[in-house]
Amino acid sequence: MTLRIVEIFGPTIQGEGVLIGEPTVFVRAGGCDYRCSWCDSLHAVDSRYRHDWLPMTPEAVMAEVERLSGGLPLTVSISGGNPAIQDFGPLIALGRTKGYRFACETQGSIAQPWFADLDTLVLSPKPPSSGENPDWDRFAQCLEAAGPARAVMKIVVFDDADYAWARDAHARHPELPLYLQPGNPEVDPDQPVDLDVATARLRWLIETVTGDRWYTPRVLPQLHVLVWGNQRGV
Ligand SMILES: C[S@@+](CC[C@H](N)C(=O)[O-])C[C@H]1O[C@@H](n2cnc3c(N)ncnc32)[C@H](O)[C@@H]1O
Ligand SMILES: Nc1nc2[nH]cc(C(=O)O)c2c(=O)[nH]1
Ligand code: SF4
Ligand SMILES: [Mg+2]
């Protein structure tokens, strides 16, 4: 059994959401059932890049994670692409025997039994600006599959319509801790990120939430983007 792997990198810090700042090794899976207009990881989505994806056994993935982490357990974040189109159960089982913890980032379109083996499931349903239209029944199936794993919701907000949509999404799932992050409009890895633009977008989101007296979500930047821009592998 092999997994389609785009890249394995770290240790770095988790730059987004509930685990922000946490030392992390990332395992990026190839392939996605969505095509978000502003996807910052097209190299893991578009089949144009698939010749760069490596078939790897769970043992080989874990060996690379251990090499990068110096053999000391930390949090492994499985992202993509949508990792839920593959079976990460054997990798998680193997990593657990060595003391590693696991988180997964997915949009909530495909449920997997192995979600229950995670420590943290980050569900990131896509707002209107993405051009995708989430299926809330499937989203609920993902939550059900998570079982004992901690599930949280992270929503990217580009504009007022996304913000209103995020409020509705929270109303559907008030039980999920909610994290909002401003959208990054500049995702070309070869172009620098304009920090003034990033700061202005973050300020707008904070002021929108507080101005609305909405005290539920945590508003966070993409910390890695502030530090490294759109560079890959960080
Ligand atoms: C690249 S995705 C991979 C995992 C999964 N496909 C998903 O979308 O949740 C990881 C996270 O990056 C977020 N993201 C992608 N492009 C972004 C952008 N341009 N600005 C801000 N966040 C973005 C996604 O919403 C998701 O929360
Ligand atoms: N540092 C860092 N934090 C991240 N959080 C989510 C990421 C992703 O691309 O899934 C990501 C990433 O690529 N790097
Ligand atoms: S679901 Fe995630 S990986 Fe897939 S296109 Fe959207 S942001 Fe990119
Ligand atoms: Mg990213």
UniProtKB/TrEMBL annotation:
Keyword entries, A-Z: 4Fe-4S, Iron, Iron-sulfur, Lyase, Magnesium, Metal-binding, Queuosine biosynthesis, S-adenosyl-L-methionine
Sequence positions that bind substrate: 13-15, 28, 79
Gene3D superfamilies: Aldolase class I (3.20.20.70)
Cofactor-binding details, from the entry: Binds 1 S-adenosyl-L-methionine per subunit.
Catalytic activity: 6-carboxy-5,6,7,8-tetrahydropterin + H(+) = 7-carboxy-7-carbaguanine + NH4(+)
Cofactor: Mg(2+); S-adenosyl-L-methionine; [4Fe-4S] cluster
Binding-site residues, [4Fe-4S] cluster: 32, 36, 39
Pathway this chain belongs to: Purine metabolism; 7-cyano-7-deazaguanine biosynthesis
Function: Catalyzes the complex heterocyclic radical-mediated conversion of 6-carboxy-5,6,7,8-tetrahydropterin (CPH4) to 7-carboxy-7-deazaguanine (CDG), a step common to the biosynthetic pathways of all 7-deazapurine-containing compounds.
HAMAP family: QueE (MF_00917)
Family: Belongs to the radical SAM superfamily. 7-carboxy-7-deazaguanine synthase family.
Matches recorded under PANTHER family: 7-CARBOXY-7-DEAZAGUANINE SYNTHASE (PTHR42836:SF1)
Name the record gives this protein: 7-carboxy-7-deazaguanine synthase
Organism field: Pseudooceanicola albus
